[in-house]
Write a structure and sequence with these properties.
single chain; mainly alpha
């Protein structure tokens, strides 16, 4: 996951998150839903990168 997600991958993950959090974000405007899910995708990517670095260090 060290590589950046492609535009298509980000959109796919955002779609999954919109579906998963449909009830929680339904009161937000579509623009705010996009911003929130984009932030969630970025946070997920960053967290996975950190975990992979930790795992690499512990397996050496």
């Amino acid at each position: 996951m060290e590589k950046m997600l492609s535009s298509q991958e980000r959109k796919r993950l955002q779609g999954i998150m919109i579906k998963a959090f449909k009830n929680e974000i339904q009161n937000l405007t579509p623009e705010l839903q996009y911003i929130l899910t984009d932030d969630l995708v970025t946070a997920l990517q960053n967290r996975l990168t950190v975990f992979q670095r930790i795992q690499t260090k512990t397996t050496l």
